[in-house]
Amino acid sequence: MALKKSELYSSLWSSCDELRGGMDASQYKDYVLVMLFIYSYDCEAILIPGEGRIGSIFHYINGRFDVHQRVYAITQFSNSVSGNYAYLYISEHFGEHAMENSVKATVDSLRLPTFQNFDLALPPTHDEQTAIANILSDMDAEVTALEAKLSKARQLKQGMMQYLLTGRIRLV
Predict the structure, then answer these.
(1) Side-chain half-sphere CA neighbours of 115 within 13 A
(2) Cα 44 from Cα 82, distance rounded (Å)
(3) What one-character DSSP code corresponds to residue 17?
């Protein structure tokens, strides 16, 4: 069931009131507004969750972001490593390694040694890594565009089937 906008606002305000406790609302808004614009990082990074669907979720960020517990942030790439190339390589090759080396508990989880023991195959120059990453990113964009086009064609077919199979449009 979809949540109505008014219900979302009501829920958020209730949560804020609960967090605020006895603090005056005028003071609380100053605190919350400041928190909306604070980031822990402003850099290039790969974010990987430490628990839940490990080895299948990866995010590449180049800019401001914040992380919370159980998220690993790979940052501070050397001048010889393209962060975007590393992201693409990890997205393709880290999953199996992660599952083989995860801590087995109620929920599989990653620990630092899992990352430290992962071999990242790098082309010799930063320029080559960047070129590879650009080509793969362009291909991803093309695949996304083709998938959108295919989805549109399927919707059109579905609409035509409704008209043709109900007799609303006759071909004779």
Answers:
(1) 16
(2) 10
(3) H
* CA gap 54, 115 in Å, rounded: 12
Q: What share of the chain is helix, strand, coil (3-state, %, to 5)?
A: 55, 15, 35
Per this entry, what is the length of the chain?
Answer: 172
Same structural domain for residues 57 and 131?
no
CA distance 138 to 88: 12
Rounded to whole angstroms, how far apart are CA atoms 58 and 39? 19
Domain range holding 131?
Answer: 126-172
Q: Of 15-19, 87-91, 165-169, where does mean pLDDT reach its minimum?
A: 15-19
Q: Looking at the structure, tell me whether residues 108 and 159 fall in a common domain.
A: no
Question: How many Cβ atoms sit within 10 Å of the Cβ of residue 98?
Answer: 21
Q: What is the pLDDT of residues 30-76, one digit of tens each?
A: 666 555 556 688 999 999 998 878 888 999 999 988 887 788 999 99
- Dihedrals φ, ψ of 21, to 5°? 60, -125
